[in-house]
TrEMBL record:
Name of this protein: Type II asparaginase
InterPro entries reported for this sequence: AsnASE_II (IPR004550), Asp/glu_Ase-like_sf (IPR036152), Asparaginase/glutaminase-like (IPR006034), Asparaginase/glutaminase_AS1 (IPR020827), Asparaginase/glutaminase_AS2 (IPR027475), Asparaginase_C (IPR040919), L-asparaginase_C (IPR027473), L-asparaginase_N (IPR027474)
SMART domains hit by this protein: Asparaginase
EC identifiers of the protein: 3.5.1.1
Keyword tRNA-binding: no
Protein origin, superkingdom: Bacteria
Organism of origin: Horticoccus luteus
Amino acid sequence: MPRASATPFLNPLPRVRLLATGGTIAGAQLTTTSRGYQAGAFSIDNLITALPQLADIAQLEIEQVARLGSQDMDETVWLNLAARADTALASAEVAGVVVTHGTDTMEETAYFLNLILASDQPVVLVGAMRPATAISADGPMNLYNALAVATHPDSRGRGVLVVANDEIHFAREVVKTNTTQLGTFKSPNRGLAGLVNAGRLHFFGAPPRRHTSGSAFSLDGLTALPRVHILYAHAGLTRELIDAAVQTGAAGLVIAGVGDGNMSSAALAACADAVSRGVAVVRSSRTGGGVVERNIEIDDDRHGFIAADELNPQKARVLLMLALTRTRDPRELQEIFFTY
Ligand SMILES: NC(=O)CC[C@H](N)C(=O)O
């Protein structure tokens, strides 16, 4: 196993642009044991002041991009955040970018940035499960570790990373799997990118698929994203919601299918009708892991469907929105899903 390596001591210290968006890492409770709290109530400056150790490893340049619970993250904030990260990465003085973010939709933002940013410099998303005012808040160590990862030369060229609970995850792989526990983040298909222990890190492998500087997607000319909905399959799924999505102008649908991306006969017929009206339909899985392959239980070739491959529904939605800015051809869309 490779030896864990601490961030090399550099003089002057590397500069890191910290883009703050809110979340529990900046959340405040009424008392340190109360269960309710307000995500994003703290400004990032409060967090930094409470953690003087950060100044030992980097010079921080702080930008408050948003102050929200990540349940309110949307395409507009993504495009703004990506533009700010892009500007930071274009500066020769900036070694890396850290984004503080709520954990609920962190995996979606991370994957979006992984597809759209064109730099090999480290970009690290970090959050917390306990508010900043809680007993044993996890945010300070997560932030310290994120900064260590963002300044380490080994982190270059690995795509966007997520740091939490002493673990490093690839943006494409990471999933929030538990409502409250500190170990909520998992990478069920391909495993961890690496570990980070009090700022010392080691990586286990290279990121899967194309990302960042190897991605064909870019921010150039991108001002909005096509409308894509996720519909959750279940026993007894009927067709009304699929039809409603098509009638209200969806460009694409992701079905969070049962098993290997399956759905009821009624839903299948509605999805086939959607394709005939030019709507892209991606079959993903609600199971939380594994692969959705083409033409196993459902004839994708005949219906014009796209198999999500390894992407969960929320990441399939991110990729489909970007892919639809390039093509509406189901065969080309399928190639994109096999590439990213
Ligand atoms: N642990 C968290 O960060 C969740 C808080 C909030 N719902 C958010 O995603 O921002």
